[in-house]
Amino acid sequence: MSIRTLLIDDERLARVELKKLLKDHPSIEVVDEAANVTDALDKIDRWRPDLIFLDIQMPGKTGFDLLAELDSAPQVIFTTAYHEYALKAFEANALDYLLKPIDPVRLADAIQKVQQLEAVRLVHGVEEGLPRGMLSENDQVFVKDGYRCWFVKLNEIRFFESVGNYARVFFGSNNPMILKSLNALEDRLDPKLFFRTNRKHIVNLRMIEKVEPYFNGGLLLELKGGDKIEVSRRQTLRFKAMMSL
Questions:
Q1: Matching CATH number, 3-128, of 3.40.640.10, 3.40.50.720, 3.90.550.10, 3.40.50.2300
Q2: Range with the lowest mean pLDDT among 102-106, 124-128, 216-220, 226-230?
Q3: Cβ(128)–Cβ(190) below 8 Å
Q4: CATH number of the domain at 157-243, please?
């Protein structure tokens, strides 16, 4: 199993040292390097890496800013000289957080986590047969709202709600805003898992607990957590066909 990996750090010597350490891990294929967020975005788009080693403090934009601009997040291992970002990184559910200079034993532990998750992702990707670019339920998205940030698996999201050209993401007790329209999200989400109920909402079908008849021939869905979402009359026909009601 080859894990396509991108190194993102503004310090050239830090990239050289990390690349040298990674030679002891043949499953890690370093496809490229980037020295700033702009460069990294171009190379992530070109290579579609499975894993990025990401510095946090870089000139212009931070590593967190980079993640907020991605449609979906690869596995992320933060590499930084600063202790103070650890809590924020783990709140975001980063895979690991390595302090510089990087300890080879800690690096090996982090790579083992990557290998385990990548094996699961590959199995699910083959089973689901999704087109390239389509997000599966085991993919994760990075969500940043103000100073808070999270990595969220799609199967943990209850629904998306349109707010103009943006959307709110509802998971757990959180509902942060992301800079994506509902239409753009719909194009990337697996239609077997997510359903557009009306102009304002896309729901996770696995989060539905109750379905009731509603006004004007529509339906009312009750989701885990108690949220209630209307299915428009037009979408009710599609919903019934999908769910064999």
A1: 3.40.50.2300
A2: 124-128
A3: yes
A4: 2.40.50.1020
The predicted model scores a pTM of: 0.68
- Cα 175 from Cα 160, distance rounded (Å): 9
Flag whether pLDDT at 42 surpasses 80: yes
For residue 204 the two structure tokens come to 């996770």
Query: Residue 189 corresponds to which tokens in the numbers above?
Result: 């989400």
Closest of 225, 195, 196 to residue 209, by C-alpha = 225
- Residue 91: what pLDDT? 54
For the chain, what are the domain ranges? Answer: 3-128, 157-243
Distance CA 221, CA 207 (A): 10
| DSSP single-letter state for residue 215 | G
Residue 46 to residue 138: CA distance in whole angstroms? 22
pLDDT of residue 85: 65
Residue 236 in tokens: 């009710």
Facing residues of 202 across strands?
Answer: 160, 196
Residue 198 has pLDDT above 90, yes or no: yes
Among residues 29, 31, 37, the alpha carbon closest in space to that of 56 is found at 37
User: Stretch 187-213: mean pLDDT, rounded?
Assistant: 95
